[in-house]
Amino acid sequence: MKIEKVNENQIRCTLTKQDLADRQINLRELAYGSEKAKGLFHDMIQQANYEFGFDVSDNPLMVEAIPLSSESLVLLITKVEYPEELDTRFSQFTEAGDEELFSNTGAVGNVERKGADDILELFQKIREAKASPESENAQQTEAPEEVPEVPADLTKMFEFTTIDQVERLAHVLVNYYNGRNDLFKNEKKNRFYLVIHKDDHTPEEFNKVCNIICEYAQQKNYNPAVGAYFAEHGNKITGPQALQVFASL
């Protein structure tokens, strides 16, 4: 079990299947709060308090689970200053089996992450459009509607306030994301910009990568004009394997 401090209000706990096996906890218990799972959370909080001064005595907690692979998941534990805001962030929870919770297709609970889940929505709409048959009347009375092709690549851009955030992210995504990615710096704003590509990843994998990055950075709008500007005027730090380079440091 590995615990890291993200900021004053959030810690990140990386758990492996072996960590859960050692405590005789299955993932269903972890998701729905058995006594063993509560004991694990208590130990996490105690360790975080001892190592980082992470005090939660006066705050409710929000726990988000992000599966990284079939062997590990990340728990993001956040102190909630305004509990009423939780109602706007979470929808209903549905039960899932162990393999689903450790799969590469989702996390525990539906957390709104603006700018990341649109990837899955885009691909889902394209798939549905290709799968739906055209009616006879539509064929007779009007030209068939053009169905968009699935884009070969998607590109997203994220803004970081410090280079340390980039390095921490790189270690989280190591051995999971292997697409092209470039890191630039805006000297005037003293901000860092990571441009990532879907490349050979599935839409679900790329969506998860974007969700994880959103824990460290803010997503920004990206289009070819932005890419051209960075190519000409941006201070490129490294690429096209920026995260892989930082993960090796």
Automatic annotation (TrEMBL):
It comes from the Bacteria. It holds the Pfam family MecA. InterPro entries: MecA_C_sf, Neg-reg_MecA. Belongs to the MecA family. This is Adapter protein mecA 2. It comes from Roseburia faecis.
